C-alpha cells in the first residue's frame, strides 16, 4: 500500500476507504496482530470475536452449571417453563483483565450488559419469552509496525486498528409442558449488531500525510434452537439442547464484504436437588467453529456448580473449563474459571438482586489472560 505526500488529499481519502474495507475483511478472516493495545479478549481478535456467556448472574456464579435450568439465562428455551408470572432480568458485568503477550503485560477493563430476559405464562402449560444476549464481543485495538517502499524510498509506518461493538442475539422463545415429566422449548434468533472501525496509518517520514479511515460494519445472521427438560424424579432433572446458526454476514455501506459460517452447538446437563436447601448441577457443551475461520477449533466446555440455601437466594459457587474457538497456534486456547455469588430477595419476593464474582484464566500460544469479572443482576416479578 502506498501513501501520498502532504497535500495529496484525494489519495489520502481513497487510501482510507481501502484501509477500512481491508480491515473489515481481515477481522472476519482472523488476521494476525503484532501488538495488542486494548480489547475484550486477546483470543477473539484472531477470529470472529469472543463468544459471550448467555448466563444470568445466578447461573454464572455457579460456573454456568445452572444456566440450562435457569429461565433468566438464554441458553435453553425449555427453562422458561419455570417463569410462573411475568418477569424480567438484566445482567451487568464489569471486567478487569491482565493480558500477557510475550512477557509484556497490559491491563484492560470493560463494562457489559450481556443478558436480558423477559417472559411470562400464556396459559397453564405455555410460557413465552425473549430478550437479548451477547453472541460475540468485538471490541479491541491492535497496532503493527512495518516498512513500505514509496517511490523508491523505504519508509517506516505504524498501522493501528480499533474496533468497538458486538454481535447481539435477539431471541423469541416458547416453552411447553407436555406432561408432568417432560417440557420442550424452541426459539428463533436474529443475530444483529455493528462495530465502529477506525484504521490509521502513521508515516515515519513527516513529509507524508497520516491517513485515517472510519467505517461502520454491520452484521446479520439467524439461528434456531430446540431443547427439552426431563424430570426423572422430584429432585433430579436432565436438560438437552441443540442450536443451529446460519452464516454471519458483514456489510459496509450496504455491501457484503464477508460471510462466515457459524457453529452448530449441542449440550446436556444434570441438576440434582436432594433437599430444599441444596442443589448440584453440571453441564457439557460442544460447538463446531472449524468452518468459521481458518484457525477455528471445535470446542468442548464443562461446568460444575452448587447452590446452598433457598433456591435463588442462597450462596453459589462453581467452576468451568474447556476451550476457546480462536487462537494463534494449532491447538485451541484453554479456559478455566471459578466463581461465587449470592442472591437476596426484596419486596416480598417480587424482586431479587444477585451478586457474583468470576476469575478466569485463558492460555494460548504465546498468550495468556487473567480476568476478574464482577457481576450484578436484577430480577423483577411485578
Structure description:
There is one protein chain. The chain is mainly beta. It has a single domain, classed as Porin (Beta Barrel), CATH 2.40.160. It is 7% helix and 63% strand. The protein contains two helices and 19 strands. The chain has a 14-stranded antiparallel beta barrel. The chain starts with 8 loop residues before the first helix and ends with a strand. Mean pLDDT is 86; it is low at 1-38.
Q: Count of DSSP helices?
A: 2
Integer average pLDDT: 86
The arrangement of helices and strands along the chain is HEEHEEEEEEEEEEEEEEEEE
Cα(first) to Cα(last) distance is 60 Å
CATH architecture heading: Beta Barrel
Characterize the biggest β-sheet.
14 strands, antiparallel, barrel
Percent helix, as a range, is under 10%
Q: How many structural domains are formed by the residues?
A: 1
The radius of gyration over CA amounts to 23 Å
Coarse shape:
elongated
CATH topology: Porin
Record the SSE blueprint.
Elements: H1 9-28, E1 35-39, E2 50-51, H2 57-61, E3 87-101, E4 104-121, E5 126-137, E6 140-150, E7 153-179, E8 182-203, E9 211-233, E10 236-245, E11 247-252, E12 255-261, E13 264-275, E14 278-288, E15 298-308, E16 315-323, E17 334-346, E18 351-364, E19 367-380
Antiparallel strand pairs: 1-6, 2-5, 3-4, 3-19, 4-5, 5-7, 6-7, 7-8, 8-9, 9-10, 9-11, 10-13, 11-12, 13-14, 14-15, 15-16, 16-17, 17-18, 18-19
Amino acid at each position: 500500500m502506498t501513501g501520498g505526500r502532504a497535500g495529496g488529499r484525494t489519495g489520502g481519502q481513497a487510501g482510507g476507504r481501502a484501509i477500512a474495507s481491508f480491515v473489515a475483511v481481515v477481522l472476519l478472516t482472523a488476521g494476525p496482530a503484532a501488538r495488542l493495545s486494548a480489547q475484550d479478549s486477546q483470543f477473539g481478535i484472531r477470529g470472529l470475536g469472543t463468544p459471550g456467556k448467555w448466563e444470568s448472574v445466578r447461573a454464572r456464579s455457579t460456573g454456568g452449571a445452572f444456566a440450562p435450568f435457569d429461565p433468566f439465562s438464554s441458553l435453553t428455551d425449555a427453562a422458561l417453563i419455570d417463569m410462573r408470572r411475568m418477569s424480567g432480568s438484566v445482567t451487568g458485568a464489569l471486567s478487569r483483565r491482565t493480558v500477557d503477550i510475550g512477557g509484556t503485560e497490559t491491563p484492560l477493563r470493560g463494562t457489559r450488559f450481556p443478558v436480558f430476559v423477559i417472559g411470562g405464562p400464556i396459559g397453564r402449560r405455555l410460557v413465552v419469552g425473549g430478550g437479548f444476549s451477547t453472541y460475540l464481543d468485538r471490541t479491541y485495538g491492535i497496532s503493527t509496525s512495518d516498512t513500505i517502499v514509496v517511490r523508491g524510498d523505504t519508509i517506516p509506518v505504524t498501522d493501528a486498528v480499533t474496533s468497538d461493538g458486538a454481535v447481539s442475539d435477539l431471541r423469541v422463545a416458547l416453552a411447553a409442558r407436555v406432561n408432568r415429566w417432560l417440557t420442550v422449548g424452541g426459539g428463533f434468533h436474529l443475530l444483529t449488531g455493528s462495530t465502529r472501525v477506525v484504521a490509521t496509518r502513521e508515516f515515519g517520514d513527516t513529509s507524508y500525510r497520516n491517513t485515517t479511515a472510519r467505517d461502520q460494519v454491520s452484521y446479520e445472521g439467524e439461528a434456531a434452537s430446540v431443547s427439552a427438560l426431563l424430570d426423572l424424579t422430584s429432585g433430579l432433572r436432565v436438560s438437552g439442547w441443540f442450536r443451529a446458526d446460519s452464516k454471519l454476514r458483514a456489510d459496509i455501506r450496504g455491501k457484503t464484504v464477508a460471510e462466515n459460517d457459524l457453529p452448530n452447538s449441542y449440550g446436556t446437563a444434570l441438576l440434582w436437588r436432594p433437599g430444599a436447601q441444596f442443589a448440584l448441577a453440571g453441564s457439557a457443551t460442544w460447538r463446531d467453529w472449524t468452518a468459521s475461520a481458518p484457525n477455528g477449533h471445535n470446542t468442548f466446555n464443562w461446568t460444575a456448580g452448587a447452590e446452598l440455601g433457598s433456591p435463588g437466594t442462597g450462596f453459589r459457587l462453581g467452576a468451568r473449563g474447556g476451550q476457546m474457538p480462536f487462537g494463534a497456534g494449532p491447538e485451541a486456547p484453554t479456559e478455566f474459571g471459578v466463581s461465587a455469588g449470592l442472591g437476596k430477595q426484596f419486596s416480598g419476593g417480587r424482586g431479587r438482586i444477585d451478586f457474583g464474582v468470576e476469575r478466569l484464566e485463558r492460555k494460548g500460544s504465546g498468550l495468556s489472560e487473567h480476568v476478574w469479572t464482577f457481576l450484578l443482576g436484577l430480577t423483577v416479578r411485578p
